[in-house]
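Title: Prediction job returns without error message
Component: structure pipeline
Severity: low
Priority: P3
Assignee: unassigned

Description:
Job completed but the reporter wants confirmation the result is attached to the right record. Sequence as submitted:
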Amino acid sequence: MRANRIRHARSRTAVLGLAVAALAAGLTTGAGPAAAQPRTAAAAAADCSAAYRIEQKLAGGTTWRMCWRYDGMAGLVLDDITYQPKGEPKPIKVLDSARLGQIHVPYDDGKAEYDDLTGQDFAKDLMNLAPGECPGGTIKTVKVPDQYPGIDPNVKGLCTTTRARGHAYRMQGDSANKVYQAQGKDLLVYTVNQVGWYEYMTEYRFQDDGTINMNVGATGTLSPIDYDAGDGRGWPIGKGAKAQATSHSHNVFWRLDFALDGSTKNRVEQYDSTVTPRGNQTPTTKTVRTKVTKELAGDAKTYRWWRMVSATGKNKDGHARSYEFVPGPTTRYPGRSFTKHDIYFTQYDKCELFASNNPKCDRAHPKDVDKWVGGQTLTHPVAWVNVGFHHIARDEDQQPMPVHWQGFSIAPRDVTAMNPLTPAALAGQNGNYTGGS
């Protein structure tokens, strides 16, 4: 689907860029805060100029704050992300930085393989968004670094808006006539980048309950150039057996630099549960915690999960604040060493920005994330999350191609002492769900 891919990406971008040049505003990106060295500063609102600050108070009383900037390879980067639910006197720092770490695309016939962020000018091909694509929100102007000659670098390319999520909770009260329910709301931040014939939607959803969802949606068009694989690795999308689109994988990495409660000195913990059958009796389940003190290449499996734990902050119940990694559906790609694992925890290194084909920082530094797991002690852990999707084309992929999503979430675990959306009538039921105070 991507023969002569760079040429097509550039020509399509040039046409679009010239068509919308008159729409582009004159804002320029600020540098934004860089990924920080370990520190223990108190959590605070995002420290950036107004043009690059995102702040949204949602209907449930939760406020999200962050800075945005635009990287010449990674595209959208969100820095200094804080979460302040109702009842909390100050913002709670969650992440120093959230960004894409790579989109790796190998084709099933073995004839092509791409690193879209570091090898395909992903960031340059930021798309202008029409007002209808950001309903009820704001489209911010982004200055694309090192833009193609003759193309306006100012792109109306960043949408911030809110969206309904459906039920945040529902509970039947003691009285049959009393129902506690609330409809959830999210802050949505997204961009669209074109690579060849694909258009990638990089989306962050910040929920009013403290959850952060990170997704990449692939849409656009099936390239007319790479049809007819002719080797059983494609799916016919034309009349009869005609026009076989080559199957391929999208292996998307995210890079998360946590700073819970303002400190990057976080702890990683792995949890594994074992279920033991007992004949006709109910099986028992035992859960074991393992403290991850050294760099790790982790493999997801049933009854296994990880969390990032604050080294300094506790909630009002005295429990350490943490964020749990909640994986989405994935197809792990075994063809490359760096895609053989679902999550990596590495010690912070300013050179390590992309999970594969990482630009060289020095001659000796490895280029892929799996080579960075070298036994270092984790004092400032960085998380790399890998989510794979095997795309076998179908008739419905034309034309245009529906969005197929892949991603994961990080969910608050003990960040607050109760559900941050708890109604006032139930606020006294902390630790006693039967109704006592």
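Comment from assignee: result matches the submitted record. The first helix runs from residue 5 to 20.
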